[in-house]
Amino acid sequence: MERLDAGFCEVANPYNPKQIKRVSLLPSAQLMNPDALDGTDVFVFWTREPENILANADELEKRGFRFYVMVTVTGYPAELEPMCLIHLKFWLP
């Protein structure tokens, strides 16, 4: 949430870490020029543990952000991912 408060984040190019780009995290609707290419239209979160994201869902919506969450479920045994089995029981009927 700190990055959303700041209104931007900086992302390094994975092939050239010295090349850094500043990305706007303002909702597109809040920008002065609605035709501007800056701003965030939607967040896509992809995770194995969505609890933290879902805990902040109301705050994201209040700030005008659209988002969806994709959850990865693996078939790994409990010895490799003991916590994922708990999540699997929580998410699946």
Word description of this protein:
The chain is an alpha+beta fold. The protein folds into 2 domains: 1-41, no CATH class; 42-93, no CATH class. It has 4 helices and 4 strands, in the order αβββααβα. It has helices at residues 2-6, 51-55, 57-62, 82-91, and strands at 8-13, 16-24, 43-47, 67-71. A two-stranded antiparallel ribbon has the order 1-2. Strands 3-4 form a two-stranded parallel sheet. It is flat and about 45 Å long.
Strand fraction: 25-35%
How would you write the strand order of the largest sheet? 1-2
> How many beta-strand elements?
4
Please tell me how large the radius of gyration is.
Answer: 17 Å
Residue windows where pLDDT falls under 50 for at least 5 positions: none
Alpha plus pi helix count:
4
- As a percent range, the share of helical residues equals 25-40%
Calculate the terminal CA-CA distance, rounded to whole Å.
Answer: 31 Å
Helix/strand/pairing category? alpha+beta
Count of distinct structural domains: 2
Shape: flat
Mean pLDDT: 80
- SSE sequence, one letter per element: HEEEHHEH
Major pleated sheet: 2 strands, antiparallel
